[in-house]
Amino acid sequence: MNNIYQIYLISDSTGETLDRIFLALKAQFNNFHYKTNHFSFTRTENQIQKILENCKKQKKTIILYTIVDEKLSNFLKKQSMKNNIPCYGLLGDLIDSFSKLLNQNALNVPSRQHIMNDEYYKKIDAIQFTMNHDDGNAIGDIEQSDIILIGVSRTSKTPTSIYLANKGYKVSNIPIVNKNSIPENIKRNKSKKCIIGLIAEPERLAEIRKNRMTSLKETGNQKYTNLRKIQDEVESSRNTFIKFKWPTIDVSRKSVEETAASVIKIYEISRKNA
Q1: Domains of the chain and any CATH numbers
Q2: Rounded Cα–Cα distance for residues 100 and 95 (Å)
Q3: Which of 187, 177, 176, 173 is nearest to 139 (CA)?
Q4: Strands 171-175 and 87-89
Q5: Which of 30, 71, 77, 228 has the fewest CB within 10 Å, making it most exposed?
């Protein structure tokens, strides 16, 4: 296809930040056909020259980069301009603006967001805690959780928990299988933990569960995918959340990121009211 753009993502670190920015950018365009070319840990002019040699061999090339070293960033911009290649820095102007606003020079150190400080170790601890408390496990110390997610099967409890853990939150999730699924100490919630119920449209859950069973090549558990049974599950869980006055989030049309954002908002409100 002649309308395919070659997107060169050049970073002086892992490229994770750049990937996320491009993900948000491309989502705004329907008819955008592209192929990505990733170049991480780009920290020398020689590396950039080699990348540009590849760029010159292709048509419809666009360079997006996150390079904090000003000299190297300017080199990339000048060389791209010489070769008529569109080139956009995604951090430079923002760093400059913050530097002026804070009245201090930026450090311009690559990979500094990955430095192993207290915040980093807090995140690792949160991930370990969340993995250990997935799917109703290790409820003995569940009150150490920052957030507790509860819901019937396939309401995105685990992926949402993991996403939140990567942001530093200790999360436990509990599946509702029967009336005894929720521990009594959670129902009493004397520690005033942030407990959130996840619900979804029964039709949506039925579809997800059927796909799950198909991927596992399992056909025996008819109740698991039965729409009427799922309707009863959802209604029962909804009544439970109302009974204990737990806030709920309908995840039917939400991505994991959107659900997590809603969870964080509820968590922050609960902390203010604690």
Answers
A1: 5-114 (3.40.50), 118-273 (3.40.50)
A2: 9
A3: 173
A4: unpaired
A5: 30
Closest CA to 166 of 133, 134, 132, 127: 127
The count of other CB atoms within 10 Å of the CB of residue 247 is 16
The SS3 of residue 5 is: strand
Amino acid at 187: K
CA 100 from chain center: how many Å? 31
d(CA 50, CA 56): 10
Rounded CA separation 110/131 (Å): 30
What would the two tokens of residue 146 be? Answer: 């920052």
Other beta carbons within 10 angstroms of residue 34's beta carbon come to 15
Eight-state DSSP code of residue 59: S
Return all residues near 240 (Cβ < 8 A) that are at least 6 apart: 176, 182, 197, 246
Residue 1 has pLDDT above 60, yes or no: no
Task: Answer whether 8's CB lies under 8 Å from 61's CB.
Answer: yes
pLDDT digits (tens, 9 = 90+) for 211-259: 988 888 877 778 899 999 999 999 999 999 999 999 999 999 999 999 9
